[in-house]
Design a protein that fits this description.
4 copies of one chain form a homotetramer. Chain A is mainly α. The first copy, chain A, contains 10 helices and no strands. At the A-B interface, α7, α8 and α10 of A face α7, α8 and α10 of B. Chain B binds a DNA duplex through α1 and α3.
Chain lengths: 197, 197, 197, 197
DNA sequence: ACGTAAGCGAGACGGTACGTCGCGTCTTACC
DNA sequence: GGTAAGACGCGACGTACCGTCTCGCTTACGT
């Protein structure tokens, strides 16, 4: 099963219903864009009555969001124990690596969220995560000019957008490089590009 | 006037209807996300009957798409007359500059499409435009390694993602820098950041 | 041509338009019930612009009514010169005969109006005609009881309903008897039935 | 209550909805012809949502038909227990009497269906009923000629048309005679007419 | 283990929006 | 300058989903 089950000791039937609905949503998403999927579709596939759906979620959006949140939570799980920030292109920060690793692990979900039309909300969450993390990026630090704060924030968005776009490309092309390599490229795109493996 | 009127000599009433509908859509979009806007809403605001809407467009999507297409077409309009590709950070390619210029000119529309949830389709079109243009980027050219093609394509996505993310940030912050400055940053993010004006 | 053209000296184009529309309506009526025929259908078939239709008729109903009225007028045309009322089963009044004769002549129209769902308005007109005429029927006359007036009117309705129903049956069965024979039957149903040809 | 409720034990809400819709249709029919009544009109009056209407009936036609069918079914309900056919003008078959009795009982409905424009489909059903029943009519039996079958069928239509037309007249004139009297007249129009009470 | 509280299926219902069709009017471009 | 072409407003249609609501059944839980 691809989604971390909540440790809480909920009713077995409830857990089953949640699981069925989530899997049904994923299956539907593999076939058509989220906007075209109806609660009825999900329930039909999950073999769960529509009424039951509404006993657990407000919306199809709520169902999706629960899944996204779990995914993002997993990304941020170990974040607290971060080592002091001094990374190079050869030793990229583990955040970057972990992002590509998790995307590889849950590639079905990530492809749906990040490639094609994708899901703006999820992309936004990921971007925020990257941008926050990228604030520790070494290249942004040495500057000491008046617009430093602005520049740093701008640069964070630059990196976040690039990282996400790269992730989409990487998934679309069946992950031709290792997560580490992608993180290195992200740290130093031009060098890496000109000395590609 | 925000949308280039078609040069064709169509019925006056038709042109009026199109204009009213487009302006109504923009006004609605300023208030709530596209998904929540109904054809009825648009028509009510445009003071155009709903059936008349359907005589011109299949969908609210079709209406939006027409507007997007016009915007992208405008972006690509002068593209043919491209000077030989030899750009530096100080002399960024005019494509980049023009993107930010147009976004500034139509900032209302661009904010709606690029910031917040935005519109995935439009972002995709813009990205494609940037990626195609970025293939001429000087930094990607000197490499002559086996994975050159892959690297170039990957880099194009890197740049496109970064440029778009930057654009969103720029618009969200009320365009604190000039379009030229943004294009320069895009060409050389680290240098520019550390020597910001 | 099945409908008597108005003797008035109207514009040729107008007469042509009326003719085309009427023929188109008849053709449509042969295919589906009146209620399902649209003005657009009629105009398409008549190769007359819809706007033009509305310049001549308010409705499809108006078009049909014009046709019906002409038919009824034709029925009543010679009515004035009626001989004194003294008819027997062998010599039925000419009204009855003429009804079946005209129905035979315009059988297409009459079938549409009288058989199947038919057209209530036309049937009503025909019934009124028969009822009025049947007041002269010999069998109703000898009575001299208090309720005479009521009885006569009731009997007229009796005969009218029977005549119309018989007409429908006759047309539905491809007119197996002569109009005269039908009129005779109408005058004396039981005798005729038991001594059928 | 004018319509025999189905004995089946259906959901209370369903029965309520059916009842409300039927009553609303009857009320509308009293005001304007069926063709001019919209589903929206019916629903508004019944205080039932239009979508709910469509969950029960395909059409306004379907709603009307259900009512008609129930009425006809009621007419034919006791038909099986028919006594041997030997009726005279004084002792008309109970079928005829029952028709007028039921029409009197449901006069509102019958007037709508049979008088004025009326409803062709209902009249057709009633006619079929009468024609079938009229086959037992004594006057048609003694004949033994080659065209007997044709003559019998023709006569059945004769009687059916007359009976229906008479019914319309009777209702239009507020039922001036008893159902029995009407049935007697139907059996022997001339005799009865000349000795009316 | 077993009674009970919950989760669940079933489906009627009001409600919003959809996209389509036909009507009758009114405007406009064109000849 | 008159007319056909057709844009338009309008009302109704039939459908799809939505979210809410009862009402019984059955199933897992906790004591």
């Amino acid at each position: 099963m691809s989604i971390k089950t909540p440790p809480e000791h909920t009713d077995l039937r409830v857990r089953r219903t949640h699981k069925l609905l989530w899997e049904a949503l994923m299956a539907e998403l593999a076939e058509r864009p989220f906007a075209e999927i109806s609660v009825t579709d999900i329930c039909d596939r999950a073999m769960v009555h529509r009424t039951t759906f509404y006993k657990h979620y407000d919306d199809k959006y709520a169902l999706l969001e629960q899944g996204m949140r779990r995914m993002i939570d997993a990304l941020m799980a170990d974040e607290e124990h971060l080592p002091p920030s001094a990374f190079s292109a050869d030793h990229p920060p583990p955040y970057f690596v972990r992002l590509y690793e998790q995307a590889a692990h849950h590639r079905q979900f990530y492809k749906l969220m990040v490639c094609g039309e994708g899901n703006a909300q999820f992309q936004r969450l990921v971007k925020e995560y990257i941008a926050r993390v990228a604030a520790d990026h070494p290249r942004a630090s040495p500057t000491a000019k008046p617009h430093l704060a602005v520049a740093a924030e701008m640069h964070a968005h630059y990196v976040a957008g690039a990282a996400l776009s790269l992730l989409a490309w990487w998934l679309d092309h069946d992950m031709p490089f290792s997560p580490l390599r992608m993180a290195q490229y992200l740290m130093s795109p031009h060098d890496t590009a000109s000395s590609s493996r």
